[in-house]
Amino acid sequence: MPNLRGQALLVLVAALGYFVDIYDLVLFSVVRISSLQDLGLSGTDLMDKGVFLLNMQMSGMLVGGIFWGVLGDKKGRLSVLFGSILLYSLANIANGFVESVGAYAVWRFIAGIGLAGELGAGITLVTESIPQKSRGYATMIVATVGVSGAVFAGLLAEYFPWRTNFFVGGALGLCLLALRLGVHESALYQKLQTHNFTRSNFFDLFATRARLKRYLVCILIGVPLWYVVGILITFSPEIARALQVQGEIAPGKAILFCYLGLIFGDFASGWISQIWQSRKKAMLLFLLLTTVMVSILFISYGIQVSSYYGLCIALGFSSGYWAVFVTIAAEEFGTNFRATVATTVPNFVRGMVVPITLLFQYLKPYIGILSAAALLGFLCLSISFIALIFLPETYHKNMDFCE
User: Fold this and answer.
1) How many H-runs (helices) and E-runs (strands) does the chain carry?
2) What is the spatial distance between Cα 293 and Cα 250, in angstroms, rounded to a whole number?
């Protein structure tokens, strides 16, 4: 267990790493319209090609989630921290030079692979290195600081061209590499090296019914968050027009306000989970809040732009349970599986954007954009409430165990 100074440095590095991760993750959603217009696209192509590029990024995260997760359990958490940030930093710099949708797609896919490793490795290191009574507060800090990266992306997009924003993301990542030199490997992982426990193989998660059930539950409780971000916020200009909002919604501002709400939501959910000494009760509260705010959105016809942005803040706050959700995934599994689970679970949740957006695109011509989005919201929230029933409480769990 590192000393207090080492713990503080670890939390700082994980938090700043997640800040850059979230900045790069949402950057495409922020600059989607301006970048595609600059490449010569217009009309329905702004949404259709936007969905394609978003799905390429998320598909990369699915691939990267498995790769980095298994690597973290076989070679150590630090190898993932260094490798993932180097990859997505270089990919984002390259993304600033693209001249076609095809090249855009390639670099979004590669960036997605890199982005997949950051959060899981950081949370794994934090949960394994911080005492149980402070674990939730530490992950709360990581998530709260991290999601503010999206606010920074939204603000930067207001003043700089889209290519510059990609360059900034790459540069921030490369600067972080130097800070990470002071971080040490997890003591629990080092302890594992002296035992003969099997190192994680991704498919070992499917070896027993009980383990698979725990894994799927960890994934499904997080689906509504990326429904909110991937559908309601990313495509807020189109949804706002269907709701006859009085004015034009800027996607960058919608994301900025949503993540502003997420900052306070992640802080509140992490704090509540500690005060209540229950991750599960905190999750239930925020899933109920998300249900209420999604319902309000779909009956908000003809409101002013300022009111719509207020709804974006409220949606962000209500779905701000990412800190609790990722902490649960890390606490649920043993040291020999922890990095694989903590890395793949959030990336599979992010990757759910792919089938969600494809279903959204399929339903839209038949039942309209609002009905399609509302139906998807009902499905995502229903799945999460059902999964929550089967979720074990992890608050008091000792992290020093193996599967």
Assistant:
1) 17, 0
2) 20
Helix, strand, coil share of the chain (percent; to 5): 80, 0, 20
Give CA–CA dist 244/187, Å, rounded.
56
Closest to 176 in 3D by CA, of 17, 32, 283: 17
| CATH number 1.20.1250.20 given to 4-196+204-389 | yes
- Report the alpha-carbon distance of residue 188 to residue 13 in Å, rounded: 19
Give 196-256 as a DSSP string. Answer: -PPPP-GGGGGSSHHHHHHHHHHHHTTHHHHHIIIIIITTHHHHHHHTT-BSPPPHHHHHH
Closest C-alpha among 150, 105, 93 to residue 316: 150
- Strand partners for 177: none
Count of other CB atoms within 10 angstroms of residue 286:
26
Q: What is the CA radius of gyration of the chain?
A: 20
CA-closest candidate to residue 339, choices 84, 8, 146: 84
Contact between 153 and 276 (Cβ < 8 Å): no
Asked if 51 and 217 count as a contact pair (C-beta separation under 8 A), the reply is no
Give 260-311 pLDDT, tens digit per residue.
899 899 899 999 999 999 999 999 999 999 999 999 999 999 999 999 999 9
Rounded-to-integer distance, Cα 63 and Cα 25, Å: 15
pLDDT tens digits, 87-119: 989 999 999 999 999 999 999 999 999 988 887
| pTM, rounded to two decimals | 0.80
276: Cα within 13 Å, side-chain hemisphere: 17
Q: How far is Cα 5 from Cα 118, in angstroms, rounded to an integer? A: 22
SS3 304: strand
Which amino acid is it at 154?
A: G
Q: How many other CB atoms sit within 10 Å of the CB of residue 37?
A: 13
C-beta separation of 127 from 330 below 8 A: yes
